[in-house]
């Protein structure tokens, strides 16, 4: 398979089209809702039979139904997928590691452009998420609330007038909502300002995580900023709190980039072009170095230091160079050292496409 065809099939359509507000810094926006159904045991204590019954019920009510602009939803059962196929869905942020590895009779409903994912039998009966390019919190909240109401036309949620939506984990009780924004903050890292900013963000009831959420490692200067509180405020207020912090981070990142250019333009050019050269010529590349070099190149593109290279390169290669996609492209299981060789080759091939 050619790399162009592999990319077209591997990258979710929502990542390649549509508006991209503040896309030089904000990679994506996600709204996630956790919901459970009345009269069914929560997944963490449910039997195999109960989980299977729940899956059958929810999929019967929602699969192939159409909602406004997102189109119909296709059901994908985890039991029907290979370990690597599940891994790729995790790498594309379409399902959680928990759904891939630990759920009983788990499944996901996906729309055609993969901007909407409804996980079934994850930690909760339903985990609905909406994904957008760039900084689009308001749009995400509108769509997720609309989908939530649409689902509730067919099922009855476990809800308490005092506590709100009831969830498996107490930290999700209330609204059950997690709003998150993926940001590329290399200048704040380079100027060591982020270490000072992070404690202040935590004090505001927000949390900073790696690219795959809770417990994941920070790679490529990518940070996921999300609300930590789900109880005591409305969804709208929580989103506004997050919006205010993200807007400040955008301003501070841009100011840090301008400062770096004024103070050390030649050194910045040297840094980003060295990383570009290493990516274009290396024969072995582990995931951490790839993320670091790709971050440098993306920064160089956004600061107009590197010309003629697509700004989507970070988004694409951060996914394509993950283990699942490397093995899919190779059409074989790869040992770690083989993945490092294949990763370097894929990056070289991707960069060559820019010159065609």
UniProtKB/TrEMBL annotation:
EC numbers: 2.7.14.1
Keywords per UniProt: Allosteric enzyme, ATP-binding, Kinase, Nucleotide-binding, Transferase
GO process annotations (BP): phosphocreatine biosynthetic process
Residue ranges annotated for the Phosphagen kinase C-terminal domain, each copy included: 25-256
Protein name as annotated: Protein-arginine kinase
Annotated motif RDXXRA motif of the pArg binding pocket involved in allosteric regulation, positions: 339-344
MF terms in GO: ATP binding; creatine kinase activity; protein arginine kinase activity
Function: Catalyzes the specific phosphorylation of arginine residues in a large number of proteins. Is part of the bacterial stress response system. Protein arginine phosphorylation has a physiologically important role and is involved in the regulation of many critical cellular processes, such as protein homeostasis, motility, competence, and stringent and stress responses, by regulating gene expression and protein activity.
Top-level division of the source organism's lineage: Bacteria
List of residues binding ATP: 28-32, 93, 127, 178-182, 209-214
Family according to the record: Belongs to the ATP:guanido phosphotransferase family.
EC top class named in words: transferase
NCBIfam families: PRK01059.1-4, PRK01059.1-5
Transmembrane segments: none
Gene behind the chain: mcsB
Record-level GO cellular component terms: extracellular space
Activity-regulation annotation: Appears to be allosterically activated by the binding of pArg-containing polypeptides to the pArg-binding pocket localized in the C-terminal domain of McsB.
Chemical reaction(s) catalysed: L-arginyl-[protein] + ATP = N(omega)-phospho-L-arginyl-[protein] + ADP + H(+)
